[in-house]
Design a protein that fits this description.
By secondary structure, the protein is of the alpha+beta class. Helices cover 35% and strands 17% of the residues. It is built from 18 helices and 17 strands. The protein has helices at residues 10-21, 45-50, 65-80, 140-143, 170-184, 220-238, 243-248, 262-271, 277-280, 290-305, 332-343, 346-350, 391-407, 410-420, 440-446, 479-496, 536-552, 554-557, and strands spanning 109-110, 147-153, 158-161, 192-195, 198-205, 208-214, 283-284, 310-315, 318-324, 353-357, 368-374, 379-385, 454-461, 466-469, 506-510, 515-520, 524-530. β15 and β16 (515-520) form a beta hairpin. The longest helix has 19 residues, at 220-238.
Length: 576
Amino acid sequence: MDPNPSPDPAPAAEEATTTLAALSLRAATDLPPDFAAPEIDEVADDEDDDDEGYATAASRGGSSTAAWKEEMEGLEEDAYGDAGPPSPSSSGYAGERGSSLASSGAGGIEEEDAATPPHAPGAEDWARGKKHADEDDASASWRKRKKHFFILSNSGKPIYSRYGDEHKLAGFSATLQAIVSFVENSADHIKFVRAGKHQIVFLVKGPIYLVCISCTEESFEGLRGQLELMYGQMLLILTKSVNRCFEKNPKFDMAPLLGGTDAVFLSLIRAFSWNPATFLHAYTCLPLAQPTRQAASAVLQDIADSGVLFALLMCEHKVISLVGAQKATLHPDDILLLANFILSSESFRTSESFSPICLPRYNSMAFLYAYVHFFDENTYVTLLTPRSDAFYDLKDSRARIQDVLLKSNVLLEVQRSLHENVLRVEDVPVDLSSQPTSPPAQSSEMAIGGPAGLWHFIYKSVNLDQYVSSEFALPIRSPKEQKRLYKAYQKFYASMHDKATGPHRTQFRRDEDYVLFCWITQDFELYAAFHPLADKTQAIKTCNRVCQWIRDVENKVFVYGESTLAWQYHHCWGDM
C-alpha cells in the first residue's frame, strides 16, 4: 500500500499510452498542439522572474524542512527495515544514513540561544510566492509559458513543476511518463523531441524523470545541463538514497519530501539566465588583494586541519576562500548548488544554522552537515562536516574565524571589493599604435565600452575551474539584454564543445546584436562580446590584451591552492 497516497495517474497514463500508440515522435505536426501552436504568444515569464533575486522564495505549503526530513526517515525505515540505507565507505567520509539526520533535533539545528539547540530552516522561513500556483495544463496562460521544468517519478507521479500546482498536473505528468515508456519499450532512450518551435528535453535518472519544455532557442546541450543541475539540487536535499524508496514501492510519492523547497529550485532556474557557472562548470571569486585573501585562507585552513571537511567563505555566489581537508576536492557544481540552497532561504541569513546536505559530486549517497553563519548581509561562512553532533564545535570554530576576519579587516575589504574591485571593459589596456583610422560616426559608436567596441567578456581558467567576468558595458546594461547575451554565450559554449563537430579552438560570429568571439586553449577559455560593427582584427588583438590583463591580476581575481600552476599565454593568434 502506498504510504503517501496522491492522485493516481493510472487512468491518465492509460489514455496517454493509447494516444501515443499512433504517435510519431519525428513529426512536429503529430505532437500535442499545446507545444506546436505558433499562433499563441508566449508569456515572457523569465524576464519577470529574473529580477526578483534570491530573496524571493516559495513554499509548497505546510511541510517544513524538519518535517520532510522526519518523513524521509520514516519512509526509509519502512523501506529498509532496521538496517536503513547503507552508506558508502569509499567516498572520503563516513557518511551518515539518511534517517540519522534527525538525530540532533528535527532535521538539524539553528542557533537561537546558548542553551537551546537550534532548528533547521522550515517552510515558515521560506517567503511564500510560488509563481502562478493556480494554473494547470488546461490554463491558456500555463501553455503560453516559454520555459517549463518538471520532475516526476517513473510511475507518473508529479514531484515538482515550475508553474502550476503539481497535483493538478498529475495527468500531464502521466503523459510525460508515457512518452518515456513508449520509447523505452522500443529498446531506445529518449533525449529530446522537437515540436514546432518547442523543444522537449528528457533526462532519465533511474526512477526520477526530469523534463524541460522550452521555446527559448537554447541548445539541447544547454537545457540538458540545466536538468542535470536540477537533479543535483534535488540530491543535495535528499541524497540518491531516495531511489531505494522506489525499489520498495514503485508508486512511492516523493513530492512531500521536497515540501517547502520551491524557492531553491526557482532560484536555480533563474540562475540559468544570469550565472555563467551554470554552463561553464566553474566558480567565480571575489576580487581581493592577495594579503587579504591569504588572511582568510589561513584561518580556514586551521579549521580544516581540526576536522572540518570543507570550509568556504563566500560573498553571495562568489568565493572568497575555499579550503578542504587533505585529498578532499569540491566540484564547482557542488559550490553552485550549495550557495543556491543557502541564499534561497532567509532563515540562514538571520541566525546560525546547522542543516544536513548532500554534495552530489562528492558523494551522492550520504549526508554531510553544513554549519552556516552570515557575518553581514552578503558574507557568510559554511563549514561542512560528516558529524551530526558537531554544531557547538563548529560554533566555536566560527567565533575564531570571525575574530580573525575582524582583526585583519577582511570583512571591510570584502564590502569595499563589492563596489570597487570590479573588472570593467573600459579598463582593458589599449594599444594606441594599433588603433585604426575610422570615420567619425563609427568612431563615436565604438567609443562606448572597451577597446575595439568590447562590451563584455568571460575568462575561464581551465586548470583552476574558476572564471572571471567583466561588468556589462552601457549597451547591455538592461536585464533583458544581459539575459540575451548569456543565452548566446550558452549556445557558443555548446558549439565550441560539441563532440560531434569539435571541439573547436576559435569561433567568430557577427549578427545584428553583437560580435561574439571565443578562444579556447588547454589553459583558458575566453568568451567576448563586441559591438556588431567591430573590426575582426582589432577584436582579436583586444582579446589578446584581455588575456594578458587577466594574467597581470590573476592573484587578485583567482583563488590558488598550495600547488603553483603554470600559466601559458599566447601573445598573438599567429602562435596558435
